[in-house]
Amino acid sequence: MTHLIEAAADQLTLDPENWNELRQLGHRMLDDIFNHLETLRDQPAWQPLPEQVRQAIREPLPIAPQGEKGAYQDFLHNILPYTTGNRHPRAWGWVRGNGTPFAMLAEMLAAGINTHAGGGQQAATFVEEQVIAWFTQIMGMPESSGGILTSGGTMANLLGLAVARHAKAGFDVRNEGLQGARQPLIVYCSTETHMWARKSVEFLGFGQNSLRQIPVDEDFRINLTALQQQIQVDRAAGFHPIALIANAGTVNTGAVDDLVALGEICREKNLWFHVDGAFGALLKLSAKYEHLVAGIERADSLAFDLHKWMYLPFEVGCLLVRDADMHKATFAAQASYLETTSRGMLADGLSFADRGIELSRGFKALKVWMSLKAYGAAMHGQLIEQNMEQAAHLASLIYAHPELELMTPRSMNIVCFRYHPLDFWNQEELDQVNREIVLRLQESGQFVVSGTVLHGSYVIRIANTNHRSRMEDFDALVAAVIWHGCEIIVEAVASARGCCEVE
Ligand SMILES: *Cc1c(COP(=O)(O)O)cnc(C)c1O
Prior knowledge:
The chain is about 45% helix and about 10% strand. By secondary structure, the chain is an alpha/beta fold. The longest helix is centred in the C-terminal third of the chain and has 36 residues, at about 365-400. The site of pyridoxal-5'-phosphate has 14 residues, from helix 7.
């Protein structure tokens, strides 16, 4: 017996030699990260990586072990303090959710069981199907719809467009590829559509020239007349329009295209109706605001992120497809080593491998499922309402302030504005000052905001998908923008004087 145990000790494994030691380290990690999350407000939202930290990360390949504790120490010193800060209560840059402590635990459990979530006879398969069924219900799509969880919005949108191509090309794209196209295939979107669309038409072989970016109206929604005219022009020129990408919340301003009208146009013109609802689709969780995305339930395919306005940790997005069979027909593939059987572990096949291009996948559904169960859909709806009200509060502060200019309609969780105190400033000066304000807000470690360009003007941009923000944080933001703006003017005046004196 002792002989056998000794023999086993000779074999290598990555399990710990001493489980109690690793258990203690694990408990310490949990304590540290909970302490960190509990005190986020007292920490800088962002700080640049010092050169010595970069150097420390660039170490040579560790051949010899540094030990679990050593690796963890490096995490504490070199990684934890230097992130992009989206966890922070005053982070509203780009569109990035905070994550939640409970979903972090769910992620840990998912990694612990380390299941291959491609499908098969296991609870994970049924959990992901259930999550998809819940979102089908939330979005108001037919119960027979199908879907898949993805790494994010880009992947969900790409897969949706691939289904559109399969459904509407009019020839066998899977066998012939685009070589089989007798007419160029055309896809429509607006000039405000996220860059995933350009990447996807390139990746799917349509090419950028086949993406018609239709102009928007003054509220950044697709111009319906221009769209219909373009479809006519394309048909007359012998092109084959196959799909329209509608926006339910554009990344720049949160604009929602007229989904009801677009659904109708797609039905009439036999186009696939794809909706990019990356964050906006989640408004369906709020009885108060769901009218803003009315018509979204008509989508043939609908993509949205759960790591934005569901606040879940990266990564997780979702694609829903009205015609579940079409979805499967786009991707399903056979292989001898993945033979579907009527019994055993692969009974019913690998259902998720059949709905996308990935085979091995992590159990993303667990954090979604556990969060919805723990907090309920209603709570998520209330958080979204809170974010909407905070954004409206910020917009009214800006609107009322003589030195600030509101640059977006006041209807979404995205607010764009600029500092504009002096009428005689030209466009270039305004852009320069506002760019500098964004950088100083970030570098001060107090706020994470981003910028964008609207109608040719640089603007400060706030996207509120933050469950940690409080109303006061937005008052503080306005004060800080004014403060940095004044500071920049004072510096500019001083340096102009300095330069005159030298002359
Ligand atoms: C964020 C975003 C995307 C891309 O989603 P990822 O999860 O970052 O890949 C697409 N569309 C819109 C409108 C977005 O806001």
